[in-house]
Amino acid sequence: MKKISMPNPIAELDGDEMTRIIWAMIKDELIKPFVELNTEYYDLSIQNRENTKDQVTVEAAEAIKRLKVGVKCATITPNLQRQQEYHLTKLWRSPNATIRAALDGTVFRAPILISKVKPVVSCWKRPITIARHAYGDIYRAVEYRVECPGKAELLFTDENGRELSRQTIFDFKGPGVLQAMHNRDDSILSFARCCFSYALDVKQDVWFSTKDTISKDYDQTFKLLFQKVFDEEYREAFEQAGLRYRYALIDDVAAKVIRSEGGIIWACKNYDGDVMSDLIAAASGSLPMMTSVLVSPDGCFEYEAAHGTVVDHYRRHLKGEKVSTNPLATIAAWAGALKKRGELDGNAELVSFAEKLGRAGIEVFEEGYLSEDLAALCDPTEFREMPDNERLMSLIREKLTEMMQG
Ligand code: NAP
Ligand code: MG
């Protein structure tokens, strides 16, 4: 078979532990036999972040901006325990946070659905994608624990020190608690643009929800800015694509999503998105099956699995045990990145390969060969085998070869 050419590279961000092993297997067994794989390689393993004082993460983010497409392996975000384990001089920042900030991006998360694992919500036929605004609100709030009677005020002074607003929040007669949070128009506008361009990319409707009936300035700002971006920049393209944008109250959308067939993008404020993405993942069947794409407002895409480095599998693997890790979300990340590269370059062969790569693993699972995490969830009559990582990769490779020949 002649290998598919790939004239332009993507940024490849390697990572840690079990997912680093799966990463190499995917490249060697599922991609390189079929494609002249062309990547700019960045080693984001915790050791190399330590050695480069995290400069490698900054360079990787720059590469995604330059090349427009990146694919990332799961990486360790160090805490104190990890600092000791890996002898780190510093608690390096989460690579995802660094990259997200550099790209000013929005994260879209969607589950991979397979018929062997029934979603808890039986009417869901297509994945529900959560878009989470990853700036501000309670994540950057200022808080104060009130211990005695007194008055809390919300005060705003302009840059010349002129008082523009002073409102009483509450007259405390006894102990209580206070919180002040903020958001920025430019961040909300970027978020809206990311949501609408991603919707056009994947051809799905966008639902945006807040609680503007209660939060008459704060949430109202989100609602108005979304509408403004939609009307001025995206309405025409949505109409041409036959797509819809709708705004509704969060409780209303929550109820509608439960009764929907799925296949929509649900854009959420920061906290709502935090909660809803875990809820959708769990209700869809399996946390390891969540995919994740970071999209910047100027059209850069970084694909990854939502899960982490699967450290317990790694520890078992180091002891010489055979493990059965779910590779589908990591394969989906590679498939997404190669497909996007193909689309941007008008490389139809690469697009077609990427689609087959994304499907091959799912088809193997559909035949009843399931990794450990799903084996337990599958109806026993439909279950065939729990292959270890080597065997699972070779089954997927066989399936992909068949698809490429047929
Ligand atoms: P995790 O790696 O996602 O694993 C949590 C649990 O989910 C695992 O113990 C495993 O359950 C199950 N699981 C996750 N992915 C799986 C897969 N592909 N196949 C089978 N089972 C899977 O999260 P964590 O243990 O909290 O974090 C480990 C490391 O990953 C941490 O250092 C963290 O900083 C990092 N992390 C990175 C990212 C990222 O780079 N995007 C995201 C999250 C966490 P069982 O043990 O029951 O099999
Ligand atoms: Mg969460």
Explain this structure to me?
The protein is of the alpha/beta class and 406 residues long. 45% of the residues lie in helices and 19% in strands. The protein has helices spanning 17-31, 46-51, 55-67, 80-85, 95-103, 185-202, 218-241, 250-258, 270-284, 311-318, 328-345, 348-366, 372-375, 389-405; strands at 10-14, 39-43, 69-72, 106-111, 129-132, 142-146, 150-157, 163-172, 176-180, 205-210, 245-249, 264-268, 290-295, 301-305. The strands form 3 sheets. It has a 10-stranded mixed β-sheet with strand order 2-1-3-14-13-4-5-12-10-11, with helices on both faces. A two-stranded antiparallel ribbon has the order 6-9. Helix 3 (55-67) packs parallel to helix 5 (95-103), helix 6 runs parallel beside helix 7 and helix 12 packs across helix 14. The protein is globular. Magnesium ion binds next to helix 9.
Number of strands: 14
Instruction: Estimate the helix proportion, in percent.
Output: 40-55%
How many alpha or pi helices?
Answer: 14
Please provide the ordered H/E string of secondary-structure elements.
EHEHHEHHEEEEEEHEHEHEHEEHHHHH
- Describe the sheet with the most strands: 10 strands, mixed
**Structural class based on helices, strands and sheet pairing:** alpha/beta
Radius of gyration, rounded?
23 Å
Instruction: Note the beta-strand portion.
Output: 15-25%
Give unreliable regions as ranges.
Answer: none
How widely separated are the two ends? 12 Å
- Chemical compounds bound to the protein: NADP nicotinamide-adenine-dinucleotide phosphate, magnesium ion
Average pLDDT for all residues: 95
Spatial strand sequence of the major β-sheet: 2-1-3-14-13-4-5-12-10-11
Shape: globular
Oligomeric composition of the shown chains: single chain
